[in-house]
Design a protein that fits this description.
With 154 residues, the chain is of the alpha+beta class. The chain has 3 helices and 4 strands. It folds into 2 domains: 3-46, no CATH class; 61-150, Alpha-D-Glucose-1,6-Bisphosphate, Chain A, domain 4 (2-Layer Sandwich), CATH 3.30.530. Strand 1 and strand 2 (85-88) form a beta hairpin. The chain is flat and about 80 Å long. It comes from Paracoccus broussonetiae. Keywords: Signal. Pfam families: DUF3576.
């Protein structure tokens, strides 16, 4: 087999493999990048980094904002409102002598204690007393309720 024939065979194989990925062949999808297949996904979705206009944030905004406000002395490392996770760096609370690092997870759109999970770490990953974690959670919940009352949504 000549080199040209080998290249032609490889090109035909790749075209066939790509055509197999094109879907059911119903004729509704023209293969344009901006068009979505009837099943809701196309090959072009792999290359696009677009969020749907129907994406919503599934966390409670009062818990989210209260967490940021109560822990404002800690530098933010990562923040993702779509998953409800806030990760901070080490910082010392006002009037405190020990530095902490916090990870907050707001897992529900309801203003409920079960929707809030706080994890604190001391320097070097040392454990923090459960009472301290509970106090931070209570401060966040109290502030969230104050914000909700202030907005007149209670």
């Amino acid at each position: 087999m000549t080199r040209r024939a080998a290249r032609l065979t490889a090109a035909l194989f790749l075209c066939g493999a790509l055509a197999a990925c094109s879907g059911s062949g119903s004729g509704q999808n023209t293969g344009r990048p901006d068009e979505v297949s009837p099943e809701g996904a196309s090959l072009w979705d792999l290359f696009g980094n677009r969020r749907s206009s129907n994406d919503t944030v599934a966390v409670n905004r009062y818990l989210w904002n209260a967490s940021l406000e109560v822990l404002n002395f800690l530098p933010i490392q990562t923040i993702d409102p779509f998953t409800g996770v806030i990760v901070t760096g080490y910082g010392t609370p006002p009037g405190g002598g020990r530095s902490y690092r916090a990870t907050v997870k707001v897992s529900d759109p309801s203003l409920d204690a079960r929707a809030l999970k706080v994890s604190l770490q001391g320097p070097g990953g040392s454990a923090v007393a459960p009472d301290t974690v509970r106090a931070v959670e209570d401060a966040i919940l109290t502030r969230a309720r104050q914000m909700r009352v202030r907005d007149g949504k209670l």
